[in-house]
Write a structure and sequence with these properties.
The protein is an all-alpha fold. The protein is built from 10 helices and no strands. It has helices at 2-30, 37-44, 48-54, 58-63, 72-78, 86-99, 111-122, 124-145, 148-174, 179-197.
């Protein structure tokens, strides 16, 4: 019974990934507004109702790529080792992302990643939906940091810093520099920004 459930779950995940990949590919080719839900369903060889079972809105077809990072800051704080301050854990996590050239840090020069970020940052409906994701992350991080206004303010500050750092890294790369070239500045900026938070 559990093996069949596992198989179904894996099949659903593969289908979801295939739909999302087809959508992002079309969006990168034609722009977000140049692609209809019908276009995506046809490219993924599924019906429109099936598409909406996996993705409730057109924006979700793009932003599902951020889902892996949803609540990440809160997880970093909750899972940190004993004796490590939350801000130190978050700083180390961001620095490790820079060293891995993780797209979420903005420090990734793969052409599809750069184009994907451009799509998100320049499409108002996507930027608006991303803001909603960020608000949910902020609430989760505030809960992990404690109670009261201080936890909420600290969560907002940390996530704002990470957002500014990532956007700055992406902009440098979008302006034609390589991720390897930008890396030392990105590390220095992160160290300075997290230092200011302390």
């Amino acid at each position: 019974m559990s093996e069949a459930t596992g198989l179904r779950a894996r099949k659903k995940e593969r289908t979801r990934d295939a739909i999302g990949d087809a959508a992002v590919s079309l969006f990168l080719q034609r722009g977000f507004d140049g692609v209809s839900v019908n276009d995506i369903a046809a490219a993924a060889e599924i019906s429109k109702p099936t598409l909406f079972r996996y993705f409730p809105s057109k924006e979700d077809l793009v932003l599902h790529r951020f889902a892996d990072h949803q609540g990440e800051a809160a997880r970093v704080v909750r899972d940190r080792r004993s004796g490590i301050k939350p801000l130190t854990a978050l700083h180390r996590h961001f620095r490790a992302g820079l060293d891995r050239y993780d797209p979420v840090t903005g420090l990734n020069d793969h052409p599809e990643v750069v184009a994907f970020h451009r799509l998100v940052f320049t499409t108002p409906s996507l930027a608006g939906r991303l803001t909603r994701y960020q608000m949910e992350d902020e609430e989760a991080l505030a809960d992990a940091l404690g109670e009261g206004i201080q936890a909420r303010v600290r969560a907002a500050q940390v996530l704002a810093v990470q957002r500014v750092l990532a956007r700055t890294n992406w902009q440098r790369i979008a302006d034609g520099r390589t991720a390897r070239d930008v890396h030392p500045e990105a590390v220095s900026d992160a160290d300075q920004a997290f230092g200011q938070l302390r």
